[in-house]
Design brief:
Layout (H helix, E strand, L loop, with lengths): L6 H33 L9 H13 L3 H8 L1 H21 L3 H29 L5 H29 L4 H4 L2 H14 L13 H24 L4 H23 L13 H30 L5 H8 L1 H40 L8 H26 L8 H30 L2 E3 L5 E3 L1 H22 L8 H4 L21
Antiparallel strand pairs: 1-2
Helix pairs in contact: 1-5, 1-6, 1-8, 2-5, 2-9, 3-4, 3-5, 3-15, 4-5, 4-8, 5-15, 6-12, 6-13, 6-14, 9-10, 9-15, 11-12, 11-14, 11-15, 11-16, 13-14, 13-16, 15-16
């Protein structure tokens, strides 16, 4: 098409806008749940179904997303997912009851589950390894900055307009991006995609959904609940069976053979731990700031917002720091510095200067943003374009599980220590120690990621460190011919 923008620019615009919208949607609801409960006349506990429905439906479709994009066309599936997510957002805003709103949230979850793997595969197909440091600027924003924007946007819209606008706000983003993608995105299909791996789907869909349900509802219903124990155990058994089935399948839906690539395997584990630590901190610290230190929801959102600013800064700096330091040193330095900041955040009290807190959260964004960016660049260094759909699916599955695991374990720490304690007069007061312990738990996830990162070898990511026009290194007879066998 004459005058059309570059295919790389098109993919970046569609991916970033769609993923930012979907990622922010995961956090805007929490701030508005109390208002929704009051206006729809439902018990606060029942409103949790809105999050459960979203997470369960997302988990159902996430494993099959890569195959759908490969088989039916990445453009077709991405735009279908974007249209479904945007349309469901409009329906959520129009809902008059809990059942309707939950059903439309399930539709949103289906769209959101398809968006991330298919969009990421398109992005990494468009950019060769040596150009991915540049595109990392686009990747950081939707993945890590959106959760910081969510509470602020939700607080402002709920207070000034209506809770319905936390869903309507998706329309002026989703509709133009959908039309833009329809006009300019290039279609891509994988001729070797094969048939749907039905046994893999029948194990992965309920396995992921049940596991995500147990992790998200365990802190609410109690880990001792027979229902939580049963769903969690069944989910893990299905996922364990999935591993055996997929290793024997000629065209697996979740390609475990990709884990033979040392860099993809290790960077994925680092990304999983980073997601658990970051999302866990963004869950625990706002609770502490509101319920223990007495800040309002809007004040809390504005205080945590510098984390997003730090991520924006890191997305610009990673272009220089990644080739200069290499993935291993950059990832480890980012994790180590963020761990130290998490520990400092655990010592925050009523007398702490708010600007010091904002500075620390800005530092979280800068440091962990480098880690997230470097993991994204390095993970797919040796993945061939034909495997990109399944690789991005596996990467997203790990990150989703990491986020759920982080929230579950930190919520468990809060429950175990106790968020309230009786004073001398017998009056219940917030227990700062519980939130401090949970923040240290978030730091523990990062330390685990640091241990995994120590196994990264910069030589495995050589393709991402070469200059664009530099020739590829010549293999010697002793080198393996396939990166998937590393």
């Amino acid at each position: 098409m004459k005058g059309a923008p570059s295919p790389k620019v098109v993919v970046c615009i569609v991916y970033v806008a769609a993923m930012f919208m979907a990622a922010m949607d995961a956090t805007v609801l929490n701030v508005a749940l109390g208002t929704i409960s009051r206006e729809l006349n439902i018990p606060p506990a029942a409103s949790g179904a809105l999050n459960v429905g979203y997470l369960a439906s997302l988990a159902l479709v996430l494993p099959v997303a890569g195959w759908l994009g490969d088989r039916w066309g990445s453009k077709r599936i991405l735009l279908l997912a974007l249209g479904l997510f945007t349309g469901a957002s409009a329906l959520c805003g129009l809902a008059d009851g809990l059942a309707e709103l939950t059903a439309y949230r399930v539709m949103q979850g289906i769209g959101g589950g398809l968006l991330a793997p298919v969009g990421m595969a398109m992005l990494f197909r468009a950019f060769p390894p040596q150009e991915r440091a540049k595109v990392s600027r686009a990747l950081v924003l939707p993945i890590a900055a959106a959760p910081a924007f969510g509470p602020i946007v939700s607080g402002l819209l709920t207070d000034q307009f209506s809770w319905r606008w936390i869903f309507y706000i998706n329309l002026p983003v989703g509709i133009p991006v959908l039309l833009f993608g329809l006009l300019y995105l290039k279609e891509h299909k994988e001729p070797e995609a094969g048939r749907l791996d039905l046994p893999g789907f029948l194990l992965s869909a309920p396995g992921m959904a049940l596991t995500m349900y147990a992790l998200s509802q365990g802190p609410v219903l109690g880990w001792h609940s027979p229902w939580i124990a049963g769903t969690g155990l069944l989910g893990m058994l299905l996922l364990a069976a999935l591993v055996g089935v997929e290793l024997r399948a000629p065209k697996p839906m979740l390609d475990m053979r990709l884990l033979r690539d040392r860099l993809f395997r290790t960077a994925g584990l680092v990304g999983m731990c980073s997601a658990a630590g970051l999302l866990g901190m963004l869950y625990v610290f706002p609770l502490m700031y509101q319920y223990v230190l007495g800040a309002s929801a809007l004040e809390t959102g504005l205080t945590t917002f510098p984390e997003a600013l730090g991520l924006m800064v890191s997305s610009q700096l990673v272009l220089w720091s990644y080739p200069k330091l290499g993935p291993k040193r950059l990832i480890m330095t980012g994790l180590l510095c963020t761990t130290a900041i998490f520990v400092l955040l655990s010592f925050v009290h009523e007398g702490t200067d708010p600007w010091l807190i904002r500075s620390l959260l800005f530092g979280v964004g800068v440091c962990l943003g480098h880690t997230v960016g470097a993991v994204q660049i390095a993970s797919f260094a040796n993945i061939p374009p034909s495997s990109m759909g399944r690789a991005s699916t596996w990467f997203q599955v790990q990150n989703r599980l990491g986020s759920a695991l982080g929230l579950a374990l930190l919520s468990g720490i809060l429950a175990a220590v106790g968020t309230g304690a009786a004073n001398a007069a017998g009056v219940m007061e917030p227990n700062l120690a519980a939130y401090r312990s949970a923040l240290l738990g978030a730091a523990g996830f990062l330390l685990l990621g640091l241990w995994f990162a120590s196994g990264i070898r910069d030589s495995d990511a050589a393709a991402t460190l070469r200059k664009r026009d530099a020739p590829a290194p010549v293999k010697t007879g002793g080198e393996r011919s396939s990166p998937a066998e590393g």
